[in-house]
Design brief:
- Belongs to the TRAFAC class translation factor GTPase superfamily. Classic translation factor GTPase family. IF-2 subfamily.
- One of its GO terms (cellular component) is cytosol.
- With 831 residues, the chain is α+β, with helices and mostly antiparallel strands.
- It folds into six domains: 68 residues, Arc Repressor Mutant, subunit A, CATH 1.10.10; 59 residues, Arc Repressor Mutant, subunit A, CATH 1.10.10; 166 residues, P-loop containing nucleotide triphosphate hydrolases (Rossmann fold); 98 residues, Beta Barrel (Elongation Factor Tu (Ef-tu), domain 3), CATH 2.40.30.10; 101 residues, Rossmann fold; 97 residues, Translation factors (Elongation Factor Tu (Ef-tu), domain 3, Beta Barrel).
- 33% of the residues lie in helices and 24% in strands.
- Bound molecules: guanosine-5'-triphosphate.
- Guanosine-5'-triphosphate (GTP) binds next to helix 15.
Length: 831
Amino acid sequence: MSAVGPQRKRAGWRRRRNPFRPDRSEAKLIWRWLYLGTIDKYRVHEVAKDFGLSTREITEILTKYASTPKNHMQVLTDHELSLIFDYLTQKHPVSGIQVIFADTYKEPAAQPKPEAPKQQPQAPRPESRPENRPRPQNGVPPRQEQPRPQQAQPQGGAKPAQQNVQRPTTRVPQKKIVDTRKGGDVNLAKYDQRLEELAPERASRMQQGKEKFRSNTGNRRGGVPFSSKRRQDEQEKMRRLQLEIAKKTPLKVQIPDEISVGELASRMKKTGAEVVKVLMKNGIMASLPQIIDYDTAALVAMDLGCKVEKEVTVTIEERLIDDHEDKPEDLVPRAPVVVVMGHVDHGKTSLLDAIRNTSVASGEAGGITQHIGAYQVQINGKPITFLDTPGHEAFTSMRARGAMVTDIAILVVAAEDGIKPQTVESINHAKAANIPIIVAINKIDKPEANPDRVKQQLTEYGLVSEDWGGDTICCPISAKKNIGIDNLLEMVTLTAEMAELKANPNRAAQGTVIEARLDKGRGPVATLLVQNGTLNQGDIIIAGTAVGRVRTMVDSKGKRLEKAGPSVPVEIAGLSEAPSAGSTFHAVADERMARELVEQRKEEEKAKSSAPVQKVSLENLFDQIQAGERKELALIVKADVQGSVEAVKASLEKLSNEEVNVRVIHGGVGAINESDVMLAATSNAIIVGFNVRPDAAARDSAVRSNVDMRMYRVIYDCIDEIEAAMKGMLAPKFKEVVLGHTEVRQVYKVSGVGTVAGCYVQDGKIVRACSVRVVRDGIVIHEGSLASLKRFKDDAKEVAENYECGLTVEKFNDIKEGDIIEAFTMEEIKQ
Ligand SMILES: Nc1nc2c(ncn2[C@@H]2O[C@H](COP(=O)(O)OP(=O)(O)OP(=O)(O)O)[C@@H](O)[C@H]2O)c(=O)[nH]1
């Protein structure tokens, strides 16, 4: 009962324990030992008393097998107790369980109970017998093997079962007795086993919170097996420890290139305020929706004790296209890819033909050659790939698309003509691409051929012939007469060997589209140059916005191929559309994903084309050229006289280079008018004016349609500026800002002052000490500074629109009625 105090309880137990004397049965001792497992404190003198021994005897046992207790009040540990019990059990064996109860229990007269239910002997309910629990802790296993039921049976008893049920009614509660009346043997082993089964069962029930302490036992631990509680405590401890560890382990945060402050906070499991605070600490004022870059976000995250990882977004392209670096051991030598460049009519085509014919003549071709944009020849068993499109234009267009196709450039220079503008361009292009140049001095068969002069000229461009002590290979040839071609090709192979060109044939093919067209019979056909890997028939390829399977594959001789390794040019059919030349291609594994990528690319292209076209201006011209968006610079020239128009037109068109063609689409005399601006707007042209000004309508229209108008007074200024703009060198430090326009209504001659113009401000304002232009019929007749500005008789700082004023122009008196005076200032452009 709950009202029973622990002292009383213990006393009660002790009373019940009294019958367990050491001279009783072995089974009793074990019982006792099990029973003691539930007692809080058991002191030396109590043990002695319970066993009917002296304290000294117990002390002796302990001294012998453990350590000497300090005094008779010392609380004994489980280990010590079990030592004592073991000792006493061994020293005092008993013959049978009846012996134990002999003095306290009187067997009632044998009264068989025929009507008693024929039940199997059952283990007593462990809940009601907490004291029977084994105590596995403290390393002392419960000695459950000892009380063998057979040993507990009286030998040769006529009614052993009935004898066994006899029990001390007063000392041992009935419920603690195993009912063996019908079962014959007392199967204590089974009983122990049942106990073991029930203990964990109860422990789990306890964990589910269903267990209730049994008040009738009055024992705090009565209903809860000690081991289960301890296990529970351990588990709880572990859980807390794990939580602690988890708290201390820095949180891993994945941060992309850009992230909003709010998102960062949520990824770090922090509040927005915490993140904003750290940002402020680092001098960044940012609100939650504001986007911060990776570096800033990483700094904040680290500040808040997180571990930062860069979030990598994998695009379809990255998933689809394998662009891993090859291992050096996977690389094998490949054929060089050669381009032939040079000035017009210096013999590029003739040379390519001669090479092809050499190859055909040597018998390898075995038939008709066909033009597929590139071909391969074998020189002394070594292949060389030639791009069949001569000139640096194709080369440049490929480069502009980012395709680096060629390894070696053959520069054809006609021996009798020498270095020409396109020769120089070719040299510069090859140099820019950082590829070796082999000079083929052609037409040496011609009597006027002067190879030395060519070599001499080449030195001016940094190409010094080998026989002149330099490192540029110069081969005298005649493409027409087939002289020196073999030597030239040998030099190509040598140069290629020096360059150690390598590729990995054992991977998915990748390369460049050399040419593509729509064939009536075969559909889209494309010439591809495999640059790495091996292209197989049946491969799925993606080239720009084209996708498809390689249906047929032929080489430059029309021979069908199953495979094409690095540096092999092939013509294939099977693509969905003709890809643009210069685009790269990849053999991929997943057709569905490839189609998805193509759709994505098409969308991007569409978005690009529907984006508002930025009008060309000298400021953005270079950017547009660089971006490959501009191949032509259209100009409209207006000048004061026809002669100037012609001169300017000729000079400007000469500025054309390999990247941009300068074209004057319109030229005329007179002021720039609205129709000029309209033409410029539709054809995306820049208007250039010489000694002319735009009229008011043209000015408005130009602002509306964003047309760039450039006014010059000297032709050279114009040429220099446009040339600089094309090279990206345009760096105007000042910009002209028109302040306003006034119309001269009256002119006065004042002695000592000069011509005073009585004006009316049409638009804007006129400011004292500004720059002015005197414009008559749209033509600038003078440009200078304002000398004075008056309003009535007083000097004025500025005169606004719709007001009248009087002004004089510095060092200019030829002002006439009807002239327009344009006021402007030069403003510095902030870089
Ligand atoms: N005598 C002589 N004439 C040659 C030689 N090589 C080319 N020619 C001639 O030079 C002219 C131009 O030759 P092409 O091969 O068309 O020159 P190209 O550089 O390809 O010219 P474009 O394609 O216009 O750039 C042709 O009439 C050729 O016959 C040569 O070695 N000797």
